[in-house]
Design a protein that fits this description.
With about 350 residues, chain A is α/β, with parallel strands linked by helices. Chain A contains 12 helices and 13 strands. The longest helix of chain A is centred in the first third of the chain and has 16 residues, at about 35-50. Chain A is globular. Chain B has about 625 residues and is of the alpha/beta class. Chain B is built from 20 helices and 24 strands. In chain B, the strands form 5 sheets. In chain B, strands 10, 11, 12, 13, 14, 15, 16 and 22 form an 8-stranded mixed beta sheet that branches. The chains are: A alpha/beta (about 350), B alpha/beta (about 625). Chains A and B meet through strand 2, helix 3, helix 5, helix 11 and helix 12 of A and strand 9, helix 8, helix 10, helix 11 and strand 18 of B. Strand 2 (about 75-80) of chain A pairs parallel with strand 18 (about 460) of chain B, so a sheet runs across the interface. The complex binds iron/sulfur cluster (SF4). The site of iron/sulfur cluster (SF4) has 11 residues of chain A, from loops.
């Protein structure tokens, strides 16, 4: 019996259905923000038509770090040790610069135990997408505050957090990260555009996503709850993404939007909303985050981008083929070389 | 010039022992670090080497950049003994801070060359003193204060050369070699050495018995330190990712490697590198990068020392449990904690063997010579990829930072072993892939590299519990299967790691000695002492790797007593051997040396004799 056109599953530009981009069944709590992010990751890779064998998924330890098992089931994954995903990712990209690295981590993994590695990853501008699934608590160990929890935010049992929050976005800009964004798991449209932009950027692309923990930090007194985020989210711009393979350009009125061209030729289109924000201005971005902190604002969108930055692997001037698979004759110097060295040591 | 006491004692010696001591003594130069004495010491050592006499040089230096005492010891040995010699025969006292103590530490009859203002001859009357006006002499060559100090060091080379009959031509050659790219500096230094030589010729009549005579035992040999030898091994093993965090005494390994790679591993046509070197933010990150790179298929390594090893414990467990290749070079120094950063030890063996929590055990290679530093560096990468696990190579400060004489290193005769890696074609043919399945029965599963263009290639690596398909699992059977297979893999490794080296005296030898790493040289010499001086024969087994080769059990069984010689307090290798030897543990005794100074043969001999006497 011939299959009807309408029964065939929809496929992307490399002929794959979206189901192909899924992973194992999630074991996270029902309604966890992380699952919402996973859905957008699946959709972004599907819509961009990325072959999964080119992708590596990396994570540390925590609820968020479990999630790479729940998307892109045909990509290699590496769930390492707590807070050390950046070094593993750096090693992977040195070994094979053709890979697309997607790191998924949490606020404990990044801002506490892993802050040292986070700092140096940002500073090196290692080519990868780095998603923080930020919920202000340690979920897997049952609800302790993390270092991104705002001062005064209350735990489930009513205790107020006495310490100030670390703003990973602000740190990242200061450290040299070349793509810095903040989003919200409850804003899929913005999140997917930022993810696609990140995947087209060569350098570290950080997306700090507020991703509520429905089990331990979703109560009214928490500044990382769905309700709080929904009420307070203030998008910097309406953000769209035009992939390099897409020739269709949507018309827009002059002066109401700016395009940022990314490394692979794709473009991020930023439509102006209430405020003026130039994401290419580093000082402007830092000032804006400082003000947002003072006013308890929750700004989302593309905070900072430097599309001309040089990533760490490019700095090393490596041969074009991946180091991992160089043949013997490329990695073992000839006998003459050893003879020459031995002669000098005599 | 010489005082009456000196002359009287010298006459006494001259009448008592007329014969020369040729090519068999040690020279110690006491200086201040940062004074450029390293160059002078190297020149002195090379001059003797160029006269065909086996030499070894050991630098005892402080954890400091400039201004603290440093001692450099050169041993000349016609027999080829290159361990540290316990007693100093010939002291060059250039450091006013330590001169008194240095002189008090000498055995009667030893020689002391000293700067005249130090008045060392007033401290003892049983030594042979040579007083030299170093400061005045260097003022003759230059007026510049800093240069004066540097040249004073070259002047002592000339003085010592003359006193010991080292040919001045060889000194000139050694200086020119040292200042290859700076002919002006070479000329100035040669002038200084000649000045010292001439001064000694005119003013210091020979009153001691030590001299160097030309031999033919160093032809074709090289001089190299263990860290450089390991660096060479890495470069020729085809290392592609190098990560490191600076730490004494391992820093020079990666620094030298970086130089070799820049020179020999850059594509001539494109100027592009076939390697990546990263100075990491700490040792955790260094090992993390190694495992990331190893997982993705690179030949990756890092080098460190004790404190770094402690930090690496977490990743060591991940590498073992998730089965990821990587090589870690541990150039051991004295611990615990910061310990004595510039002193040598074999104190990491036990912690490296089981590094990380849970049931973890590692493949450890233990080189004893610079040749083995080179060869084992190459072997380590093959083993890491064959067994998909971190491999540790444990040398130490003595081996790593001191200069050793060796035969030129052979070019590797085997291609590199990339282990069980499945390509897209193989996946297509087999039609199935389970990452942690023991399909060959040797405990070693197959892996795929990220980037492999096949739908079956992907798998999920994790440090948490997993089953054969690399799925998350907390099931008891899965866990047990996994750790039992890892044990099996470790058993398989026994047959692949470097076997022990046995030197046997036949079946009725009662005493056995076991040693490893840089302790080897003292043991070999001690065996000769025991035979020559006490008519005691010993068999000697030199361990070169963990897990042990099965020979070890037999060795313990076949001897009445077995002495395990090592440079740590707790007899760490002895503990490992006791675990292995089963019922024979009461036979096992320890010979321990843990002063931070390299072990010497006399110490080994004395400790064995004492324990033999005590029964
Ligand atoms: S505990 Fe919180 S963060 Fe963890 S899975 Fe549940 S909802 Fe998500």
């Amino acid at each position: 019996m011939p299959t009807l056109e309408k029964d065939k599953p929809k496929t992307n530009r490399i002929g794959l259905p979206i189901a192909d981009y899924k992973g194992a069944e999630s074991t996270l709590c029902n309604g966890c923000g992380h699952d919402a992010i996973s859905s957008q990751i699946i959709k972004a890779f599907y819509e961009l038509g990325i072959e999964q064998h080119r992708v590596v998924k990396l994570s540390g330890i925590g609820c968020s770090s479990k999630s790479p098992a729940y998307f892109l089931g045909h990509a290699h994954g590496f769930n390492g040790v707590h807070g050390r995903m950046p070094s593993v990712a750096t090693g992977v990209m040195l070994a094979n610069q053709r890979l697309i690295a997607l790191g998924v981590t949490g606020d404990g993994d990044t801002a506490s135990i892993g802050i040292g590695q986070f700092v140096h990853l940002m500073r090196r501008n290692v080519p990868m997408v780095y998603v923080i699934e930020n919920n202000g608590v340690y979920g897997l160990t049952k609800g302790q505050f993390s270092a991104t929890s705002e001062r005064g935010s209350k735990s489930k049992s009513g205790v107020a957090n006495p310490l100030p929050a670390i703003d990973c976005c602000q740190m990242a800009i200061e450290l040299g990260c070349s793509y810095v964004a903040r989003s919200f798991a409850g804003d899929p449209k913005q999140l997917i555009a930022l993810l696609k932009g990140a995947l087209s950027h060569r350098g570290t692309a950080l997306i700090d996503v507020i991703s509520p923990c429905v089990t331990f930090n979703n109560h009214p007194d928490s500044t990382k709850s769905y309700d709080w985020a929904k009420e307070h989210e203030e998008p910097l711009h309406e953000i769209g993404f035009v992939p390099y393979f897409d020739q269709i350009t949507v018309d827009y009125d002059e002066g109401t939007a700016t395009d940022v061209t990314l490394h692979d030729g794709s473009r991020i289109r930023l439509k102006k909303l209430d405020r003026d924000h130039d994401p290419m201005s580093r000082t402007g971005a830092i000032r804006m985050l400082e003000e947002a902190r003072a006013n308890s604002e929750f700004l989302t969108g593309l905070i900072y981008i430097d599309p001309t930055s040089i990533d760490f692997v490019s700095l090393l001037n490596l041969v074009d083929e991946p180091l991992a698979t160089l043949p013997l004759e490329k990695v073992r110097p000839p006998k003459d070389a050893l003879d020459e060295i031995m002669q000098e040591l005599r | 010039m010489a005082s009456t006491i000196e002359t009287a004692y010298a006459d006494e010696i001259a009448t008592k022992k007329q014969e020369w001591v040729v090519n068999d003594f040690s020279i110690q130069v006491a200086t201040v670090n940062g004074s450029g004495s390293q160059t002078s010491n190297t020149v002195l050592m090379r001059s003797i080497f160029q006269m065909g006499v086996p030499v070894s040089g050991k630098n005892l230096f402080p954890s400091n950049i400039a201004g603290l005492p440093t001692w450099f010891t050169i041993r000349a040995s016609k027999h080829g003994w290159i361990a540290r010699k316990k007693d100093i025969d010939f002291l060059v006292a250039m450091n006013p801070e330590t001169a008194g103590e240095d002189v008090l530490g000498l055995e009667p009859g030893a020689v002391a060359v000293y700067e005249e203002t130090l008045k060392l001859d007033q401290i003892r009357n049983d030594l042979i003193f040579y007083r030299v006006p170093f400061a005045k002499l260097s003022a003759e060559v230059t007026k510049e204060a800093k240069l004066k100090r540097l040249l004073a060091n070259m002047i002592y080379v000339g003085v010592v050369a003359q006193l010991l009959s080292i040919e001045m031509e060889e000194v000139r050659k050694a200086i020119s070699r040292q200042f290859k790219s700076k002919p002006k500096a070479a000329d100035l230094n040669i002038k200084a050495a000649e000045l010292g030589f001439e001064y000694a010729e005119k003013n210091l009549p020979k009153r001691d018995r030590f001299r160097v005579e030309r031999m033919n035992k160093t032809a074709g040999k090289i001089i190299i330190d263990g860290n450089s030898a390991m660096a060479l091994g890495c470069a020729f093993a085809g290392v592609t990712v190098v990560t490191w965090y600076p730490i004494t005494p391992s820093s020079s390994l990666c620094e030298t490697l970086t130089e070799y790679l820049a020179q020999y591993r850059t594509d001539k046509k494109t100027g592009k590198a076939t390697y990546a070197v990263v100075q990491a933010e700490d040792e955790l990150a260094a090992f993390g990068m190694v495992l990331g790179a190893g997982w993705a298929g690179a030949r990756a390594m890092t080098s460190t020392s004790g404190p770094g090893i402690s930090l690496m414990a977490e990743f060591a467990g991940l590498g073992y449990f998730a089965e990821i290749p990587g090589v870690v070079f541990d150039v051991q120094r004295v611990g615990p904690s910061t310990g004595l950063p510039t002193r040598t030890s074999q104190g990491d063996i036990l912690s490296v063997a089981f590094l990380s929590h849970g049931d973890t055990k590692h493949i450890v290679l233990i080189p004893a010579s610079v040749e083995e530093c080179y060869q084992m560096a190459i072997d380590a990468f093959d083993l890491a990829e064959r067994f998909q696990t971190p491999v540790f190579v444990c040398s130490d400060l003595d081996l790593g930072m001191n200069n050793w004489m060796a035969d030129p290193f052979p070019y590797p005769d085997k291609p590199i072993d990339r282990g069980k890696v499945m390509t897209a074609e193989q996946l297509e043919k087999v039609g199935k892939f389970e990452r942690y399945r023991d399909s060959d029965g040797d405990g070693i599963p197959y892996r795929t590299l990220p980037g492999t263009p096949h739908r079956l290639a992907a798998y999920f690596t994790r440090g948490s519990g997993h089953n054969e398909k690399s799925e998350y699992s907390e099931r008891s059977e899965d866990y047990k299967n996994l750790v039992d297979r890892l044990s099996k893999k470790y058993e398989t490794a026994r047959k692949f790691v470097p076997a022990p080296v046995l030197s046997s005296n036949g079946s009725n030898c009662r005493l056995g000695i076991i040693a490893y790493g840089s302790s080897h040289w003292a043991v070999a010499e001690s065996q000769a002492q025991l035979r020559a001086e006490h008519d005691i024969d010993t068999d000697y087994l030199r361990v070169r790797a963990l897990p042990f080769n099965y020979d070890l059990k037999n060795f313990v069984r076949n001897h009445e007593r077995v002495y395990i010689v090592e440079q740590n307090r707790d007899g760490q290798m002895a503990s490992l051997i006791k675990l292995e030897a089963g019922g024979d543990t009461e036979k096992i005794r320890s010979v321990l040396h843990y002063t931070g100074i390299p072990i010497d043969a006399r110490t080994v001999t004395e400790q064995i004799l004492r324990q033999e006497r005590e029964g």
